[in-house]
Amino acid sequence: MGEDDIPAVQQIERQSQMAPWSAQTYRREIRNRQSCRYVVARADTRPPNGSPSTTDYPLLVRMLQRIGLVSLLPTARPPIAGYGGIWLNERSGHITTIAVAPDHRRRGVGELLLNALIDGAYELNAEYLSLEVRVSNLAAQRLYLKYGFRPVGQRPHYYTDNQEDALVMWTDPITTTSFKERLRELRRQLYERLRQQADQPVADNPRSGPMVG
């Protein structure tokens, strides 16, 4: 995510019914490379080719280049389809935000962003992953459960827009062989999903759908 992406990111935030951050907050987070990583996914119409790299980290950039469905490359300028952020909180890579534009939901973009943030956690030398998610956002919770997050508690009235509770979720250590093997298999499955969708037009999705998909 670059500073010139902030207006488009804030527009997706408003579409996702979240209390938007200020532009200054995003600028501060983006500039803090010691503790933060922020990424955007861009809709990309380039034709797919090739196969994924055997390299698991960092990020899925090689996968995206070959698929042509979504690109996280900072030099690409197609429209932003989604964004996410993570910052280091002691030993935890805490996912601060993740959202997908309504027209791009239910196509794996949210899962792709989550993988980008996991790589950000590795770059920051985090040992765990953590996040808060709305108790009503079952689609996002299912995604997080698939990637090894588990509920550990709730924060009452956490979201200021409607006073909804937040479910707090953590992973086990992300440095273990078991976590990395699970991640590798999930990325293989995600690559296949994106590859199959690469030649398909984006279907119309209800704007009331989940933020992550």
From TrEMBL:
Record-annotated N-acetyltransferase domain positions: 1-174
GTP-binding as UniProt keyword: no
Keyword line: Acyltransferase, Cytoplasm, Transferase
Pfam families tied to this protein: Acetyltransf_1
Record-annotated membrane-spanning stretches: none
Keyword Cytoplasm: yes
NCBIfam families: rimI (TIGR01575)
Protein name (record): Ribosomal-protein-alanine acetyltransferase
